[in-house]
Structure formats: structure tokens, C-alpha cells
């Protein structure tokens, strides 16, 4: 982790905080974290990729870490398309024509969207839990009770009590998610706190709450992203070379690999990573995550 450098750059509507390591002229790997995690999910991944010649870029998503909005007037919007727009804007700011895009949780969804809508910018895709592109119409449909139970925090966040509770207890909340999503991951307090500092971002609660409320159709996004969301609502196929991964002990809600295999129409492979690996796969099984990136890149 000490080998990477923390930097800031204006990109789109954000002043993006990001970690970078590896040769400046190397093939780019854009690594995207989820919630409630941060760039340190890739602390072991980054040096391994850098050693293979990759230029590794790991941004804090909007609402996390040192990423800030350039304007107080910009809506604190967490809808799925805007996070992908952020990723492409960062690539533009860094003058990256193409990158391997890889992630988990929100980061996997974002990587999927970049691959689906901007395939010319995506040299390959590594997506934990596969195809996660959603739409509000589907989000409004009720699930069987056992499935709804897994999304308890989504319903909590739909209430003002939930927003206030998350704001007041964000560290305890995040630790509970880490424990339930990765039941066999024996992380220590220092590892958790290193990431938990990212949740002190002044926009964090607003972005998280908007993200989950948007999914259920309880709030709207920004009109300029309506066309992108309409395209995503059609569940577009992904044609770039792809490897999907799933931990054998992922305690978070996730689709079965058979449910999304046909969404990947290019070179495709799915790998289940054994050994009690949970939701935060890059941090729990960094070697497997790196191997997928190397393979999708043809190394």
C-alpha cells in the first residue's frame, strides 16, 4: 500500500481523490470499490498489478474519501449511471483512452456500465458478482420474503430514521455489513478503520441514501442521465472480454452466475473463488482478483 501515491484531479463534476501506482506508460487498470468499502480493498491487488507493468488507478467514488464535488450546487446524486459517468470523466482527465475496468459491489455495477455503454474505453472487464446493471422498474417489483430480508438496509435507508441512523452510526453500520457480507473474513480493527475514515466524507450519507432510494424509485436522478438510464433499463449485453468472479461465502445479496452468463457476448469466463471468500473479494482473495485481470488482459 505504501507504494501507491494519493492524488487529486478535477474530472467532470468532481475533484477526484485516487491512488496510483505502476509505470506511467503501462496498460491502465481502473479499480472501483463498493459500499461500505474504499480504495483499500485493493491494497494488496495494486502492487501485484504494478509489478506486472500495469498503471493502476483506484479512485474514491463520489461520497468517499478525498473525492469532493466542485460545486455546492451539484445534486448529491447516487444513481447508477452517474457513477459510471464519473469513471469515464476520470479516464478523460487522466488521458486514458482505454483501461481494464474491474470492481466489486457498486464498483462492479459501475464497471459493467462502462463496458456496456462505452465499450471502446474498456479493454476488458472483471466483475465480482457478474452483471449488476439494474433499473427502477425492476427495483419496484417485490421479491420473495427471504430475498427481501437480505435487503433490510435498503428499506431502512428509505426512511428518515434510516438516514439519521446511518449518519449517526456509519462506522458501526459499515462493520455490521462487513461482517454479514464476509462472514469468514477475520479483518482486524486497524484494517476496518483504515477504510472507515473514507465514510467521514461530507457527502457520504447523501450519496449512499440517494443510491438506495433511487433503486426503489423513491427519488429521481438528474434528467441529463435519463437517456443513459433508458439504455441500461434494456439490460444491454456486454461484448468486451470479461471474467466474472464470486466468492463461495458471499453473504451479501447477489445473483447466481447462471442468471447472467448470457449477458456477456464476448470472450467470457466465470470463476467461483473457494476458501470462505466473501463479498469484498479483492481484499479477501487478491491473488484471484489479480489473476482475473491478467487473464482478461491476455497476459
Please, could you describe this protein's structure?
One of its GO terms (molecular function) is hydrolase activity. With 299 residues, this protein is an alpha/beta fold. It has one domain (5-296): 3-Layer(aba) Sandwich (Rossmann fold). Helices cover 39% and strands 18% of the residues. Strands 1, 2, 3, 4, 5, 6, 7, 8 and 9 form a nine-stranded mixed beta sheet that branches. The protein is globular, with a radius of gyration of 18 Å.
Question: Using only CA atoms, what is the Rg?
Answer: 18 Å
User: What's the oligomerization state?
Assistant: single chain
Shape verdict = globular
Mean pLDDT: 97
- Count of strand segments: 9
CATH class: Alpha Beta
Q: Name the helicity range.
A: 25-40%
Structural class: alpha/beta
CATH homology group:
Alpha/Beta hydrolase fold, catalytic domain
Estimate the strand proportion: 15-25%
- Unreliable runs: none
N-end to C-end Cα span: 23 Å
Largest sheet: 9 strands, mixed
Protein name: Alpha/beta hydrolase
GO molecular function, one term: hydrolase activity
Keywords: Hydrolase
Amino acid at each position: 500500500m505504501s507504494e501507491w501515491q494519493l492524488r487529486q484531479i478535477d474530472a467532470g463534476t468532481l475533484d477526484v481523490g485516487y491512488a496510483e501506482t505502476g509505470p506511467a506508460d503501462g496498460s491502465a487498470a481502473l479499480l472501483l470499490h463498493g459500499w461500505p468499502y474504499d480504495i483499500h480493498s485493493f491494497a494488496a491487488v495494486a502492487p501485484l498489478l504494478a509489478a506486472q507493468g500495469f498503471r493502476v488507478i483506484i479512485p474514491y467514488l463520489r461520497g468517499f474519501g478525498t473525492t469532493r464535488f466542485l460545486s455546492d450546487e451539484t445534486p448529491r446524486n447516487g444513481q447508477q449511471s452517474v457513477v459510471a459517468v464519473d469513471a469515464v470523466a476520470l479516464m478523460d482527465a487522466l488521458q486514458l483512452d482505454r483501461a481494464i475496468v474491474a470492481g466489486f459491489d457498486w464498483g462492479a455495477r459501475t464497471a459493467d456500465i462502462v463496458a456496456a455503454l462505452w465499450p471502446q474505453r474498456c479493454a476488458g472487464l472483471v466483475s465480482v458478482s457478474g452483471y449488476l446493471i439494474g433499473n427502477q422498474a425492476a427495483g419496484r417489483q417485490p421479491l420473495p420474503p427471504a430475498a427481501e430480508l437480505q435487503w433490510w438496509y435498503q428499506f431502512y435507508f428509505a426512511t428518515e430514521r434510516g438516514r439519521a441512523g446511518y449518519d449517526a452510526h456509519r462506522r458501526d453500520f459499515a462493520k455490521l455489513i462487513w461482517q454479514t457480507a464476509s462472514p469468514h473474513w477475520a479483518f482486524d480493527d486497524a484494517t476496518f478503520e483504515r477504510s472507515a475514515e473514507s465514510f467521514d466524507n461530507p457527502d457520504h450519507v447523501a450519496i449512499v441514501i440517494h443510491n438506495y432510494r433511487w433503486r426503489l424509485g423513491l427519488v429521481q436522478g438528474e434528467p441529463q442521465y435519463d437517456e443513459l438510464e433508458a439504455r441500461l433499463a434494456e439490460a444491454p449485453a456486454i461484448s468486451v472480454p470479461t471474467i466474472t468472479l464470486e466468492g463461495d461465502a458471499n453473504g451479501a445479496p447477489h445473483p447466481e452466475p447462471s442468471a447472467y452468463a448470457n449477458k456477456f457476448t464476448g470472450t467470457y469466463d466465470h470463476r467461483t473463488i473457494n476458501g470462505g471468500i466473501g463479498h469484498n473479494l479483492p481484499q479477501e482473495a487478491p491473488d484471484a482478483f489479480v489473476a482475473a485481470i491478467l487473464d482478461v488482459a491476455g497476459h
